[in-house]
Design goal:
By secondary structure, this protein is an alpha+beta fold. The protein is about 25% helix and about 25% strand. It is built from nine helices and 13 strands. The strands form two sheets. Strands 3, 4, 5, 6, 7, 8, 9, 10, 11, 12 and 13 form an eleven-stranded mixed β-sheet that branches. A two-stranded antiparallel ribbon has the order 1-2. The chain starts with 11 loop residues before the first helix and ends with a strand.
Length: about 325
């Protein structure tokens, strides 16, 4: 992006800090940027120091994927305060905890925001039970749901379980299914042909694909492509069928169970993968004002997307699955 004269002479780290705040990263600091500077921002296809002064006609590109990765991987476990709060516990044993996350709740603290998240409440609960292990990273977190998304999540209670789950997520052996309530802008004709005349039984469809060990037949619409940051709206992600410079491989399977309800299974875990993929197909999730509008700037607090199925293997290598519609 070519920047206006308003930024000429400005330090690059200050420019990045302001850009981050404009895009919802309001808790980053200059010292944090300095400690994590590598490959965060380029100028004319090179990566200068934080003190670089912006010149006229400089081409500046912020690496939003790297920003997200740095924020996600920052371990602030010792600073996460245990808090009392209601948890909807679906299942628990000595190694892991299955929760039903409500919409509008942040999963894990961000930089400068260390309270009132699901992780705070999980730590408070485990401490109250005398089961909190200080060797856990990020209070046992192994995956996330966006703030506006609800549904099934797993937290590890032991470091060995956390390590096992992390490897299963990396190897794509964890299976997840989401339920989305959608509306249409337009619709891909091949996808439209899969919409049933009468509503299908959601539980039966999930049971069927689980029994078939997630081998998807033609009733599931396969969408493969690449997801990267949108150049027109830096808050959004954009799905493309073909590779681009900033895109990462994304694979999704989608099954309409009614005209306005979809089951979705994702093999890759890209940022906003479901939302960006549905936008490509001419659909958007109810309540998702960010993807409903081309230039939407506000991240919605709640959207009609729910994690309804999760499966993995426990430490005894026994299969575990849970479903809640």
């Amino acid at each position: 992006m070519n920047k206006t004269n308003n930024n000429i002479g400005k330090r690059l780290d200050l420019f990045l800090l302001e850009s981050l705040k404009e895009n919802g990263y309001s808790n980053f600091s200059r010292s944090f940027l300095k400690d994590n500077w590598d490959n965060l921002i380029s100028v004319n296809n090179s990566f200068p120091k934080p003190s670089y002064k912006i010149k006229s006609e400089d081409k500046i590109e912020i690496n939003w994927e790297k920003i997200k990765e740095v924020e996600r991987n920052t371990d602030r476990s010792e600073k996460i305060i245990g808090e009392q709060g209601e948890l909807d516990i679906l299942y628990e044993d000595k190694d892991f905890l299955i929760l039903d996350k409500p919409k509008g709740v942040v999963v894990h603290p961000g930089i400068g925001n260390l309270s009132n998240t699901l992780a705070n409440k999980v730590r408070g609960y485990l401490e109250e039970q005398g089961e909190y292990d200080k060797n856990l990273k990020r209070v046992g977190l192994v995956h996330r749901l966006d703030k506006g998304v609800s549904g099934i999540m797993v937290f590890a209670k032991t470091p060995s379980m956390q390590d096992s789950l992390q490897k299963q997520f990396e190897n794509h052996t964890v299976k997840k299914i989401y339920l989305a309530e959608v509306e249409y802008k337009s619709v891909n004709p091949d996808f439209e042909r899969l919409i049933p005349n009468e509503k299908l039984d959601i539980c039966s469809e999930i049971e069927d694909i689980e029994n078939r060990k997630f081998v998807f037949d033609k009733s599931w619409y396969n969408v493969e492509g690449y997801i990267g940051r949108s150049s027109k709206n830096r808050i959004k992600m954009l799905f493309r069928r073909y590779s681009s410079n900033n895109g990462k491989k994304a694979i999704s399977y989608i099954k309409p169970v009614s005209k306005n309800s979809l089951l979705i299974s994702i093999e890759t875990g890209r940022m906003h993968q479901i939302r960006a993929t549905l936008e490509y197909l001419g659909l958007y999730i109810k309540g998702d004002t960010l993807y409903q509008k081309t230039k939407g700037k506000k991240i919605p607090e709640k959207i009609a997307l729910k994690s309804v199925f999760l499966s993995f293997y426990d430490l005894n290598n026994e299969y575990f699955s849970i479903c809640k519609i």
